[in-house]
Amino acid sequence: MTLSVRPQPLLAVRDVEKSSAWYCGVLGGASAHGGPEYERVNVDGQLVLQLHKLEVGHHHGVFGDPDVPLGNGFAVWFAVDDLEAVASRVVASEVQTGVHDNPNAGHRELWVRDPDGYLVVFAGK
């Protein structure tokens, strides 16, 4: 039996439209849903990230307490084909660790913070 897994991470955010614009811009992606409560970010027609308004429950209940800082101890990780292109779309103030070699993983990485403070890592050649 072959197990097929396709990650579809979902982040709870304070402003879905602002986060969508940031992720679409940095990743070169596109909105695949749109709206103030939920978003699907696609890159080359593939879902890479979902965004959900923190305090909206829909059918499943709320994701978290809006008074608690988001992203503590969590990183969103993207493998990208063109790390330099991603780096060129990131604002300097968002950078935590600039493009550098990770000798343990054998690739280059860029570590940034998104509009909600989530740690976002882009890894590539």
From TrEMBL:
State the UniProt keywords alphabetically: Dioxygenase, Lyase, Oxidoreductase
- Which intervals hold domain VOC? 1-125
GO molecular function per UniProt: dioxygenase activity; lyase activity
Please give the superkingdom of this protein's source: Bacteria
Which InterPro entries does the UniProt entry name for this protein?
A: Glyas_Bleomycin-R_OHBP_Dase, Glyas_Fos-R_dOase_dom, VOC_core
PROSITE patterns for this protein: VOC
Spell out the Pfam families in the cross-references. Answer: Glyoxalase (PF00903)
What is the name of this protein?
Catechol 2,3-dioxygenase-like lactoylglutathione lyase family enzyme
Native species: Kribbella italica
